[in-house]
Amino acid sequence: MTDPLIECRDLSAGYGKLAAIRNIDLQVHSGEIVALIGRNGTGKSSTLHAVMGVVGIAAGDVRLHGRSVRGLAPEQMARLGVALVPEGRHVYASLTVAEELSFRPTSRLARASSGIVGAVTAARPIPTQLASGWCEPSRSRIASTPI
Q1: Domain interval for residue 120
Q2: How large is the average pLDDT for residues 45-69?
């Protein structure tokens, strides 16, 4: 089997002295859709923020295509093909999630990551229903395309 697109190995991270996540192991392979599901405060967003470099990693590693990306800034992660689409910001409240993801950006940083999001939405439609019921289509997503 090939290396996972994204992998967290024994990942621990937090905000200052507050540990938000501890010892997370997670792999996302090509073609997979993975959901982090849990109650409020269980570390779903913190895990994604640690992967993206928004939150400092206390222990463990984040790997992209088998290569460590621990300590990279969010803009460096975007250049590598990883993007975080945060929930509930409603910058364009009248647009659907698919429309927001396909929106043509004008900033250099946004243009750098636009191909990533476009490739994800073109390759696979965004699910709006889970086995357990309806999901909110504006929840956080993390997406990656091969480098």
Answers
A1: 6-144
A2: 94
Cβ distance 75 to 109 under 8 Å?
A: yes
66 φ/ψ sector (left φ>0, alpha ψ -120 to 50, else beta): left
Q: Is residue 58 part of a domain?
A: yes
pLDDT digits (tens, 9 = 90+) for 87-110: 665 566 777 777 766 765 555 555
CA–CA gap between residue 33 and residue 142 (Å, rounded):
10
Q: At 116, is the pLDDT very low, low, confident or very high (cuts 50, 70, 90)?
A: very low
Q: Name the helix (H) or strand (E) containing 59.
A: strand 57-64
DSSP per-residue string spanning 97-134 = HHHHHH----SHHHHHHHHHHHHHHHHSPPP-EETTEE
Q: Are 28 and 7 a contacting pair, CB within 8 Å?
A: yes
- Position 118, amino acid: G
The CATH number covering residue 113 comes to 3.40.50.300
The verdict on residue 1 lying in a domain is: no
CA–CA distance from 103 to each of 84, 110, 118, 145 (Å)? 15, 10, 9, 18
Structure tokens at 125: 């439609």
Split into its structural domains, the chain has a count of 1
Prediction pTM value: 0.61
